[in-house]
Specification:
The complex is a heterodimer of chains A (371) and B (406). Chain A is of the alpha+beta class and 371 residues long. Chain A folds into three domains: 112 residues, Acyl-CoA dehydrogenase/oxidase, N-terminal domain (Butyryl-Coa Dehydrogenase, subunit A, domain 1); 100 residues, Butyryl-CoA Dehydrogenase, subunit A, domain 2 (Beta Barrel), CATH 2.40.110.10; 145 residues, Butyryl-CoA Dehydrogenase, subunit A, domain 3, CATH 1.20.140.10. Helices cover 53% and strands 16% of the residues of chain A. Chain A contains eleven helices and nine strands. In chain A, the strands form two sheets. In chain A, strands 1, 2, 3, 4, 5, 6 and 7 form a seven-stranded mixed beta sheet that branches. Chain A has a two-stranded antiparallel ribbon with strand order 8-9. In chain A, helix 9 runs antiparallel to helix 10. Chain A is globular and about 80 Å long. Chain B has 406 residues and is of the alpha+beta class. Chain B is globular. Classes of the chains: A alpha+beta (371), B alpha+beta (406). Chains A and B meet through helix 7, strand 9, helix 8, helix 9 and helix 11 of A and helix 7, helix 8, helix 9 and helix 11 of B.
């Protein structure tokens, strides 16, 4: 399914309205210091009222089958509101991993529950190095008879890793990196929360000690699956980043219009005005890059992988820039705990480095260009 | 695409097939082959420059004869009476063909002055000049900037004094592109120094062969002379060549400047397209054995992120236009990024080339980049400086308070 311009506007305004009611700053601040790091009641309402968990899940698995364009609109709004929810881990990372695995049986088992909002899921790829490169994975899985497997190793930086009902784990077999499904209550699994720079996105360290696991997709196929997931997740993250960056720009412009010093609004000083204009330029580029990448994905264009790399790099930089300059435009008040500017700063830096950071995404871009 | 658009595109293609060869792609050259010029401004000797202008006029005449000379213009002045969307579509189709570069008459004259004449001139002037311009006979220039009126354009000091049915103009204009080839120029003059400056300006269409008009080439930092100074000494202009009301010239100027932003922001082709082409830049890095230099690779990636994101921005603005909508600030952002991207590209390539850009070794595709390098400072100034563009974005898009102005 695809929504036209009017449909996208309606989707945006209904998500914004929902988040303004359910995820105002006070709620975000409360949740970022609680366990779990989200409000299960709000998550249930997001499923019942807006059908958000099933947005991009194909209709055959109980979802609404929308594309990345619609997902982007939702994520831009979630990025604006710094929503604390299992959306990114469940709907973006885990769902896309299941779909990319091509394993229809596993999809049929898990996706309807995710679409209905009853199941949350997480994707565990990175280990202590934080690298998403499947070649860096040392967790291992060995056959345990009757098609069952046992998984041993450590994972880190796993978003929602302490709360997700279903864990999708990449581990090495003799055939290479492979994707496995592990239940929350499986014996031998331990999860502990990590202290995070961005408290609105929970991360966990997972330890697997001969944990029973089920293979998802073909043995040794996770390298290719993860490449696909990373492209889609980069574009999804880019949408979230551009939404956050837009919010920082709006906050700065608002402050520059109303804050007076030397008897004038500070936005009438060119030094401040140009800072805001520079933020606007970055935000416009970020939105164009992320929305265009989403469009190319939905069209099945062969330009998508390059556009995904551009969006990831462009939006990562734009958000960090906007979050940093937002504090500068606000001056002293922007450096206080009470002001929301630092929440965006933390999210911006954490998002920029989530999939490896500039050194990784620049090389990925050049690789896509054959350079 | 709607049916009539498809018909129009097919008609354009049939016309171009009959009159021009298909273009070759300059963004993916075979290293060491073909033209390696990276000139942003023309660097042609005088005879070649004349030939270039003649070819531009000839191609514009052919376009005009086949109904593509002024796609959005009214039929009574030789136009086609179609929409800006048809215009964009024609440009897109024509870019697939190797045709004469008509920038000398197109960018300023047809792109900016023509629409201004149409909006503000008296009927006699419209009849006298519009068809001539879009047929390639008349080239027009913009007599706006003065030594004392750059970003603060409204402070023009060129005087126009009424004498019966005529006006007498005295003053100096500067940075006038294509004045040396022009038949007419649109001049902003001061007609009332006693009121706030925006309310004392009057616009005139000046025949460039009128007695008292003197065009002197202005040599810019590239070494070439693409701009001019124009001196106006007791130039007599009939009142019917006045555009808009007496003291109402600022409105006329705004029409021109709005069309300027639309024109400048859409630049993305031409010989310098290679400067932002991934294929071209990677070929350069291979040819100079720098492709595995990590620091250069990181800078190349950053440069390409901006270049490709800017392309996405243009694509989306164009799509909005084609769908009949009005783009937001994309065009102004795109103009800013265009200057910055090319500037960074020129400096990136300089660092890749090293000494080969400070002295000519004769090697293909190396010293030629110095032409672009020397042109890039202009890209952050012309058509509204970066600083003015940022003021406009902050004030009009973000609603920040205006600078205190005198």
């Amino acid at each position: 399914m695809t929504a036209d311009e009017t449909g996208l506007r309606e989707l945006r305004s209904s998500v914004r309205e929902f988040l303004e009611a359910k995820s105002p700053e006070e709620a975000v601040r409360k949740l970022m210091e609680s366990e779990p790091r989200f409000d299960p009641a709000v998550w249930a309402q997001a499923a019942e009222q807006l059908r958000l968990p099933g947005l991009v899940i194909p209709e055959e698995y109980g979802g609404d089958g929308f594309g990345l364009v619609e997902l982007g609109v939702v994520l831009e709004e979630m990025g604006r509101a710094l929503l604390c929810a299992p959306f990114f881990a469940t709907v973006v990372l885990a769902t896309q991993a299941l779909l990319a695995s091509g394993d229809r049986e596993v999809c049929a088992r898990h996706l309807p529950g995710i679409a209905a909002g009853g199941t949350t899921a997480a994707l565990a790829v990175t280990e202590d190095s934080g690298s998403w490169d499947p070649a860096m994975i040392s967790a291992r899985a060995v056959p345990d008879g009757d098609g069952a497997w046992k998984l041993t190793g450590r994972k880190a930086f796993v978003i929602d890793g302490t709360t997700a009902d279903l864990l999708l784990v990449v581990a090495r077999t003799v055939a290479g990196p492979s994707l496995f499904a592990v239940d929350r209550d499986a014996p031998g699994l331990a999860a502990e929360p990590m202290e995070t720079l961005d408290a609105t996105r929970a991360m966990a360290r997972l330890t697997f000690d001969a944990v029973p696991a089920r293979l998802v997709g073909a043995d040794g196929a996770a390298g290719r699956t993860m490449a696909k997931v990373l492209d889609i997740a980069s574009v999804a993250l880019a949408a979230e980043q551009s939404g956050g960056a837009r919010r920082c720009l709006e906050a700065s412009a608002e402050h520059a219009r109303t804050r007076h010093q030397f008897g004038r609004p500070i936005g009438s000083f060119q030094a401040v005005k140009h800072k805001c204009a520079d933020m606007l330029v970055q935000v416009e580029l970020a939105e164009a890059a992320s929305r265009e990448a989403a469009r190319l994905a939905d069209e099945g264009s062969e330009e998508f992988p390059l556009a995904a790399a551009v969006a990831h790099a462009c939006c990562s930089r734009a958000y960090m820039f906007a979050a940093m300059e937002n504090i500068q435009v606000h001056g002293g008040i922007g450096f206080t705990w009470e002001h929301p500017a630092h929440l965006y700063f933390r999210r911006a830096k954490s998002s920029q480095l989530l999939f490896g950071g500039p050194a990784v995404y620049h090389e990925r871009l050049l690789d896509r260009l054959g350079i | 695409m709607a049916d009539d658009m498809q018909d129009f595109a097919a008609e354009a293609r049939a016309f171009l097939d009959a009159h021009a060869p298909k273009a070759t792609d300059r963004t993916a050259p075979t290293w060491g082959e073909g033209d390696d010029s990276m000139a942003y401004f023309s660097s042609l000797p005088p005879e070649a420059e004349q030939e270039h202008v003649r070819r531009a006029r000839d191609w514009q005449r052919v376009r005009h004869e086949h109904g593509f000379g002024w796609i959005t213009g009214p039929i009574e002045y030789g136009g086609r009476g179609l929409t800006p969307v048809h215009d964009l579509l024609y440009d897109a189709v024509e870019s697939e063909y190797d045709v004469a570069d008509t920038g000398v008459l197109g960018v300023i004259g047809l792109g900016m002055i023509g629409p201004t004449i149409l909006a503000h001139a008296q009927p006699t002037v419209k009849e006298r000049w519009l068809t001539a311009m879009y047929r390639g006979d008349a080239i027009a220039c913009q007599l706006f900037s003065e030594p004392g009126a750059g970003s603060d354009l409204a402070s023009v000091a060129t005087k126009a004094v009424r004498e019966g049915d005529e006006w007498v103009l005295n003053g100096q204009k500067v940075w006038t592109s294509v004045a040396q080839h022009s038949q007419i120029g649109l001049a902003l003059t001061c007609t009332n120094p006693d009121v706030p400056k925006h309310r004392g300006i009057t616009a005139f269409l000046v025949p460039m062969d009128a007695p008292g008009v003197e065009v002197r080439p202005l040599r810019q930092m590239t070494g070439g002379a693409d701009f001019n100074e124009v001196f106006l000494t007791d130039v007599r202009i009939p009142d019917d060549h006045r555009l808009g009301e007496v003291d109402g010239g600022w409105t006329v100027a705004l029409t021109t400047l709005m069309n300027e932003r639309a024109t400048v922001g859409s630049e993305g082709v031409g010989p310098v397209a290679a400067a932002l082409s991934p294929d071209h830049l990677s070929a350069l890095m291979r040819a100079t054995w720098t492709w595995d230099d990590r620091a250069l690779r990181a800078r190349l990636a950053e440069l390409l992120v901006d270049a490709l994101a800017t392309r996405h921005l243009n694509t989306r603005a164009l799509r909005t236009l084609r769908a009949g909508g009005t783009p937001g600030p994309e065009m102004s952002v795109s103009k800013l990024m265009y200057g910055q991207n090319l500037t960074r590209a020129a400096h990136f390539v300089s660092d890749v080339l090293g000494p080969r850009i400070i002295a000519d070794t004769g090697q293909w595709g190396t010293y030629a980049w110095s032409e672009l390098l020397l042109a890039t400072p202009a890209l952050r100034i012309l058509g509204g400086t970066e600083e003015i563009m940022k003021n406009i974005l902050a004030e009009r898009v973000l609603g920040l308070p205006k600078e205190v102005r005198s």
